[in-house]
TrEMBL record, chain A:
This is Glycine betaine/proline transport system substrate-binding protein. Gene3D superfamilies: Glycine betaine-binding periplasmic protein, domain 2, Periplasmic binding protein-like II. It holds the Pfam family OpuAC. The keyword Signal applies. Keywords: Signal. Residues 28-310 form the ABC-type glycine betaine transport system substrate-binding domain. SUPFAM superfamilies: Periplasmic binding protein-like II. The keyword Signal applies. It comes from the Bacteria. Residues 1-23 form the signal peptide.
From TrEMBL, chain B:
This is Glycine betaine/proline transport system permease protein. Keywords: Cell membrane, Membrane, Transmembrane, Transmembrane helix, Transport. It is found in: Cell membrane. InterPro entries: MetI-like, MetI-like_sf. The lineage of its organism: Bacteria, Pseudomonadati, Pseudomonadota, Alphaproteobacteria, Hyphomicrobiales. The chain crosses the membrane at residues 61-80, 87-104, 110-133, 154-181, 264-282.
């Protein structure tokens, strides 16, 4: 019995050694899998590429923008945030980059992220006169509030996201209150998505904050309303994005910078993969297609990542060296 | 080298149903559910409308009444419930501190929500508990359901609830009640089952009807356990109010979520402590009230 046990341990130990020898050239990497779809798929694509192309051992860490940033900045954990909307933490990120703690890699979304106030496309088609936010605010009856149908609703972004501040300020600036609207706090990403899904099930109007590229916009067709003014950066930084700004003016959302952010430790231990991190980017159209496929097929983030790698080889083979691409293809 | 190289494949990799068929099944279930929601949505909306009105009304009442009135009413309720000066002073002081910290309105929203949730949980829980105590078969059916209610992650049932009811107080209320009602049911059932057989025989001997037995013998003797159930329900409602704010319920929970997402340590703790203060007020008052109701000391069951 003793002998049997000893040999089992020995075998297990050797097996473990063999496993670690493979990953020696890259090491253990943790990637933040953010809790919205496009970032989740990006994280899974990175995981697949790093594991099969570069031989890293990847663990995914579930995250959200602010907690993940705090953790990366203070504890250098996780190593990589593939899709990071940097506008919300620009100052702190710049400081971290200057001090060499974090590195800004590729702009993951080549066109940046699109934010704004959206209405369902079926409503926009039925009411061609609604082109801007101001037009929509003339019709509170088209956008009944979930808790009080006598008022119109502007759905705010989830609690604690930066867009909550800007949406509230724009709500004030457009005098939506006077127009008979209330600002509805959706609470969480799930609440916001649920309210859109619910409106489409009821074939009811919906007005509120949303952003692309997202699965919801791949699944439900929505039209973005213009604010009727150009994006004014000075005003945005001084007031629109500041909580409790006394007199906000009407402004348009900026196009958001979306970058991959990695820790210094990652660039040291996984240097082989740094080039990939610096070149990899995709466009909103592709992401939208992948997310729509994911919604239609009830796929997980992992399924969608595999689907992307299988469907768009022309795009991703440009991100890596030919021998790495072969390895990844073999693993598919 | 590896064990799996020599063993047949199905031992090392669980023979799962293929991804495609699982995906098809998931998709058809989802589509079926959506179709169902679509066909009944008007009826469902009409059914929960009164509840929505009541919740809105109560919240408006709590938020828009002048604060001294609310404070006085609260202190009066606490005093007449507990007849205990220390608890009463504690209530006044803690509510005052909450007001000073600028959390008055949020606390009122949460208070309205928790009050309704607790009342509904008690109204649903006690009759079901009594039914369970009266029949072993009912108990064996309801127990597993309670297990599911208490262990199923709330986010899971929030998905269909939001689909059906949209966002706001009604789905929040449903989520909170599902989570908070099981202890009420379980402890009511337990309390009644633990009533001494001999006492019931005596009641029978004096010719009590079933209703009289329940009202005059079983319920009074089960009261300490039932009060513990009420207390648990209150505590669980308060804990769940934070999760309910993920589907658009305002109040303290919303601030907590915001604090989590932004890493605002102090904001999170202040709002958390406001919840704790409400919980302690509810708890001490209901406990003291329960003790006063107690005309009979609990019999030790050996």
């Amino acid at each position: 019995m003793k002998k049997l046990l000893a040999s089992t341990f020995l075998a297990a130990g050797l097996y473990a050694l063999a496993g670690s020898a493979q990953a020696a050239e890259c090491g253990d990497v943790s990637i933040a899998e953010m809790n919205w779809a496009s970032a989740g798929v990006a994280a899974q694509v990175d995981k697949f590429v790093l594991e099969n192309g570069y031989g890293c051992t990847v663990t995914l860490v579930t995250g959200d923008t602010m907690p993940t940033f705090t953790s990366m900045n203070e504890k250098a954990e996780p190593d990589v945030a593939p899709e990071f909307w940097v506008n919300s933490v620009r100052t702190a990120l710049d400081a971290a980059i200057a001090e060499g703690r974090l590195i800004q890699a590729a702009p993951l979304l080549s066109e940046g992220g699109v934010e704004g106030w959206w209405i369902p496309k079926f409503l926009a088609d039925a009411h061609p006169d609604i082109k801007t936010v101001q037009d929509a605010l003339k019709h509170p009856e088209l956008f009944p509030a979930p808790e009080d149908a006598s008022k119109g609703a502007v759905h705010n972004c989830p609690s604690g996201w930066n867009c909550q501040v800007s949406t509230a300020n724009l709500y004030k600036a457009t005098e939506a209150e006077k127009a008979g609207f209330t600002l509805v706090d959706t609470g969480s990403a799930a609440g916001l998505d649920g309210s859109i899904a619910n409106a489409f099930e009821k074939k009811q109007g919906w007005l509120g904050y949303y952003w692309a590229p997202t699965a919801i916009l791949g699944k439900y067709e929505m039209t973005k309303l213009s604010f009727g003014v150009e994006h004014n950066k000075a005003e945005w930084d001084a007031c629109t994005a500041v909580p409790d700004c006394p007199a906000p003016k009407v402004n348009s959302y900026p196009v958001s910078d979306v970058y991959t952010v990695v820790t210094k430790a990652f660039s040291e231990k996984a240097g082989v993969a740094m080039d990939y991190m610096k070149t990899r980017q995709w466009d909103n159209g592709t992401v939208g297609k992948v997310l729509a496929w994911m919604g239609d097929n009830q796929g997980t983030n992992e399924d969608a990542a595999k689907y992307f790698l299988q469907t768009y080889p022309d795009m991703w083979t440009k991100w890596v060296a030919p021998d790495v691409a072969e390895k990844i293809k073999a693993a598919l | 080298m590896a064990l799996c190289d020599v063993l047949p494949g199905f031992i090392c990799k669980f023979p799962a149903i293929s991804d495609t068929s699982i995906r098809m099944a998931r998709k058809s279930i989802d589509d079926g559910f959506k179709a169902l929601v679509r066909s009944y949505i008007d009826i469902i909306d009409a059914m929960v409308q009164p509840l929505q009105w009541f919740l809105n009304y109560l919240e408006r009442l709590f938020v828009s009444s002048p604060w001294p009135i609310i404070l006085l009413v609260m202190v009066a309720i606490v005093y007449f419930g507990s007849r205990n000066i220390r608890i009463t002073i504690g209530t006044a002081v803690s509510m005052f501190v909450i007001g000073l910290l600028g959390l008055w309105n949020d606390t009122m929203v949460t208070l309205a929500m928790v009050t309704v949730c607790t009342l509904i949980a008690i109204l649903i829980g006690i009759p079901i508990g009594i039914l369970m105590a009266r029949s072993d078969r009912v108990q064996s059916i309801i127990n597993p359901i309670l297990d599911v209610m208490q262990t199923m992650p709330s986010f899971v049932y929030l998905i269909p609830v939001v689909m059906i009811f949209g966002i706001g107080k009604v789905p929040g209320l449903i989520a909170v009640v599902i989570y908070a009602v099981p202890p009420m049911i379980r402890l009511t059932n337990l309390g009644i089952r633990l009533v001494d057989k001999e006492v019931l025989e005596a009641a029978d001997a004096f010719g009590s009807s079933g209703w009289q037995k329940l009202k005059n013998v079983q319920m009074p003797l089960a009261l300490p356990t039932i009060m513990a159930g009420i207390n648990q329900t209150i505590m669980m409602s308060l804990a769940m109010v934070v999760v309910a704010s993920m589907v658009g319920v305002g109040g303290l929970g919303k601030n907590v979520l915001q604090a989590i997402n932004n890493q605002f340590f102090t904001v999170g703790f202040l709002n958390g402590f406001a919840l704790v203060a409400i919980a302690i007020i509810f708890d001490r008052t209901s406990q003291a009230y329960g003790r006063r109701l107690q005309k009979h000391s609990e019999i030790i069951h050996g």
